[in-house]
């Protein structure tokens, strides 16, 4: 069969790549990634080397001498540049009359697709720094890109940023002459000298990079016009549009951007490296996050400054045409290698986003690149000395924090932490390039940050970087008071270490989950923190969604186990009355213990399960194991502290509760536990102070806090306090838990009707299946009866609590309502039974 003829060129049979076919006797064509005015890009398996490559063809209709020369030049120049932030070009070939080249296949999406989400300032700066590094390498090789734009920048799933498409690049030597034959480039991203057809140099690429940074920050370019020519000509005006007008660009970035966008190349940064150095200095300011009020001026849009709160969204790569040419030539060049066609089977699988964001800390997590399992062995990490800003006589704080962080993280299972002595010398900003540090120290992750001291107020900003990509994975700010240096060192070091540990658990297993699974995981974690456990938007549903997509994702197994235990604790309502929460929780805990026992949350969930059966020795052992796995686990310290306080070991319990609160100030109920301890000892001023803190810091525990207020009112036989707390509760609340809580107060204020109250108690217990919660309900019923002097019913409810899993010896011994019962033989017997359970906790250490 004869081949096809196009003008003067004839293609032999089989010359055109086809999906599922072998091309040039070497490349298995797997998918069409995109098609543009100059040609097509395919994903192909190179049989000779066994690697996936991008194969770019020159469309036969566009194959005039000029286009062919451009094609050759792309290969020649691109092969000069060997840098991790530029796509490698392998070879140039011809098959059956069709010219093609092969290049590195970058799995990810274009920056154009990422712009749809309008990245936050820190992420935009990080991307710009990587592009600048790639440009600097190209410039040092004598290559000027000349067509830098979002569609020519790819973002790998790992977070690596890659410059592609050197189709109209020129050597520095060639650019010493004026351009002829039309102006090459994309109008929106051209530098003024390109528009005017004047010689270009590395500063031309710097100009385009600054435009892209503005677009990432504001969602649009600074120049506008009715058509592409007007847009291009707008930059010839002597004055740059006011960058502050958008209100989206952080003030520290204004100066570097304005300089990079100077109309006269002589006024710009002389190199991409110089631009990068200026951005590095700004990144330190933005990463500190202490400047939001003062040094960032009016730029305080909470949606942009605060750590990301929405989980990662899945973004599809957008097909975009290539190079536009002013003054003649082709309307569009071949697309970048990952501009995915609408009908491509890769469109959904390649639609990955650069990062997933921790709702609580602003984590930025690189997505998986393979389906391989998690890396084996310990994760290597180095802590750098934090940069100190404050009075010279207190600069020792930085060294103390370095030692504390290193020591605490070294005790965390799964981490191999470089000694503080090995990193203590790295005190200057110039020594902190994460890539070189990774090589020098042999680590995968680096932690650094800043310490700012003003008077007694201390602010620490910490971040974690991936040394391979240089990308920031996590950052958080910590505030404290410089009252006791040693206490501060201890608490802040542990708190930062705990925040890091939580994020590292996800990072370690990221290879097992895609973007949607990570999105569901982050939603689940946030829902669990807020105790939103059941229903379609509850933590249990989201964790299950994770495991449906990623059955081996162990952080979700551990999280599901704990979420199910908490869901079982809640009173049932009509939405899930038919769910066997005991069975669901048991299955989730057993699965987590079998598949993910080395997670602190798994051990905490197992401890909670043991408590439901009254197996307190096992519960305490699981909590001890959780703390061996993660010495800074705030949840483990909270739970163990609560058990030890109830079990009449208050000195240990209070220590754990206070540590849990310092590790995670969001565990507000620790304040209520500490307040209860004070109230049971008659320290009502101390109780009130702690409860005021709780009620002013959060509304999440409003109903349960008012229950505590009513109980303390009952203990003191203070009807006014009970009435005041009851008035704070919504009588029409649809929440089953809130309705149950509200039923405690009215029987204390009205005439005592024991028979009616017993009926009410029976109805309340009918929706409670959890042993620990049923025990607590009988404790409340015993208080109501004792308040009215009904000894028999009080003892009866105490007996029921004892038959269940009562371990609250501190309450039995110190609640004023039981003063008249403590010599009753039945009470003495009950106390001995409860003490025996407490001894199980004590025996576990």
TrEMBL record:
GO terms for molecular function: ATP binding; protein serine/threonine kinase activity. Residues 346-360 have a biased composition (Polar residues). It comes from the Bacteria. CDD domains: STKc_PknB_like (cd14014). PROSITE patterns: PROTEIN_KINASE_ATP, PROTEIN_KINASE_DOM, PROTEIN_KINASE_ST. ATP binds at residue 56. It holds the Pfam family Pkinase. It is an enzyme of class 2 (transferase). Keywords: ATP-binding, Kinase, Nucleotide-binding, Transferase. Residues 27-286 form the Protein kinase domain. The keyword Transferase applies. Its EC number is 2.7.11.1. Residues 322-374 are annotated as: Disordered. This is Serine/threonine-protein kinase PknL. The gene is pknL_2.
């Amino acid at each position: 069969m004869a081949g096809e003829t196009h003008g003067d060129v004839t293609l032999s049979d089989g010359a055109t790549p086809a999906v599922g076919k072998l091309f040039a006797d070497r490349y298995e064509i797997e998918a069409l990634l995109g098609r543009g005015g100059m040609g097509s890009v395919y994903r192909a398996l190179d049989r000779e080397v066994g690697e996936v490559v991008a194969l770019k063809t020159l469309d036969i209709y566009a194959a005039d001498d000029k286009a062919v020369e451009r094609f050759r030049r792309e290969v020649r120049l691109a092969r000069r540049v060997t840098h991790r932030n530029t796509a490698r070009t392998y070879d140039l070939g011809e098959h059956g009359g069709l010219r093609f080249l092969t290049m590195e296949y970058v799995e990810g999406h274009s920056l154009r697709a990422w712009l749809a989400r309008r990245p936050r300032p820190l992420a935009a700066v990080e991307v710009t720094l990587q592009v600048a590094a790639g440009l600097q390498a190209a410039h040092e090789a004598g290559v000027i890109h000349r067509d830098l734009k979002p569609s020519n920048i790819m973002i790998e799933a790992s977070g690596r940023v890659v410059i592609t498409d050197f189709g109209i690049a020129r050597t520095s030597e060639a650019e010493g002459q004026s351009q002829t034959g039309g102006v090459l480039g994309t109008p929106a991203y051209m530098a003024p000298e390109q528009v005017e057809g004047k010689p270009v140099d590395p500063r031309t690429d710097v100009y385009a990079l600054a435009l892209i940074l503005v677009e990432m920050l504001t969602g649009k370019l600074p120049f506008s016009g009715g058509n592409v020519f007007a847009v291009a000509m707008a930059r010839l005006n002597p004055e740059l549009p006011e960058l502050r007008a958008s209100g989206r660009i952080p003030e520290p970035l204004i100066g570097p951007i304005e300089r990079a966008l100077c109309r006269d190349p002589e006024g710009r940064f002389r190199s991409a490296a110089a631009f990068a150095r200026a951005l590095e200095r700004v990144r330190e300011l933005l990463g500190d996050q202490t400047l939001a009020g003062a040094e960032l001026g009016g730029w305080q849009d909470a949606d942009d400054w605060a750590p990301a709160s929405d989980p990662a969204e899945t973004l599809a790569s957008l097909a975009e045409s290539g190079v536009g040419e002013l003054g003649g030539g082709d309307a569009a060049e071949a697309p970048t290698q990952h501009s995915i066609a609408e009908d491509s089977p890769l469109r959904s699988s390649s639609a990955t986003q650069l990062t997933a964001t921790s709702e609580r800390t602003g984590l930025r997590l690189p997505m998986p690149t393979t389906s391989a399992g998690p890396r084996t062995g310990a994760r290597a990490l180095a802590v750098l000395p934090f940069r100190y800003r404050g009075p010279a006589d207190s600069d020792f704080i930085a060294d103390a924090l370095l030692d504390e962080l290193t020591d605490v993280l070294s005790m965390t299972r799964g981490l191999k932490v470089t000694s503080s002595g090995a990193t203590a010398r790295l005190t200057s900003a110039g020594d902190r390039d994460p890539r070189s540090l990774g090589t020098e120290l042999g680590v995968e992750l680096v932690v650094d940050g800043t310490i700012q001291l003003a008077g007694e107020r201390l602010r620490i900003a910490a971040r974690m970087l991936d040394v391979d990509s240089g990308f920031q994975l996590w950052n958080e700010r910590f505030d404290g008071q410089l009252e006791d240096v040693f206490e501060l060192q201890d608490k802040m070091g542990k708190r930062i270490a705990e925040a890091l540990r939580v994020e590292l658990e996800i990072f370690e297993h990221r290879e097992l989950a895609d973007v949607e699974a990570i999105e569901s995981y982050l939603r689940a974690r946030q829902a669990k923190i807020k105790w939103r456990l059941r229903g379609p938007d509850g933590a249990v549903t989201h964790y299950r969604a994770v495991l449906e997509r990623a059955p081996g994702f162990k952080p979700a197994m551990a999280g599901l186990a704990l979420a199910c235990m908490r869901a079982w604790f809640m009173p049932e309502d009509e939405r899930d009355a038919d769910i066997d929460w005991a069975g669901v929780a048991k299955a989730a805990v057993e699965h987590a213990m079998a598949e993910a026992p080395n997670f602190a949350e798994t051990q905490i969930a197992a401890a909670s399960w043991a408590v439901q059966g009254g197996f307190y020795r096992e519960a305490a052992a699981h909590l001890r194991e959780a703390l061996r796995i993660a010495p800074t686990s705030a949840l483990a310290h909270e739970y163990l502290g609560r058990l030890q306080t109830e079990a009449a070991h208050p000195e240990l319990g209070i220590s754990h509760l206070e540590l849990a609160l310092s590790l995670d100030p969001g565990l507000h109920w620790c304040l209520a536990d500490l307040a209860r301890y004070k109230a049971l000892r008659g320290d009502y001023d101390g109780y009130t102070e702690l409860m005021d803190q709780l009620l002013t810091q959060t509304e999440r525990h409003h109903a349960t806090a008012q229950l505590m207020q009513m109980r303390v009112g009952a203990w003191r036989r203070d009807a006014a306090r009970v009435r005041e707390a009851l008035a704070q509760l919504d009588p029409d609340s649809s929440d089953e838990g809130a309705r149950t809580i509200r039923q405690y107060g009215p029987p204390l204020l009205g005439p005592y009707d024991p028979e009616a109250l017993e009926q009410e108690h029976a109805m309340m217990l009918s929706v409670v299946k959890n042993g620990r919660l049923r025990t607590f309900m009988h404790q409340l019923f015993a208080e109501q009866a004792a308040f009215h002097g009904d000894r028999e019913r009080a003892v009866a409810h105490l007996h029921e609590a004892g038959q269940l899993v009562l371990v609250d010896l501190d309450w039995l011994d110190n609640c004023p309502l039981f003063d008249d019962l403590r010599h009753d033989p039945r009470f003495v017997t009950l106390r001995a039974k409860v003490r025996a359970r407490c001894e199980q906790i004590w025996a576990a250490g």
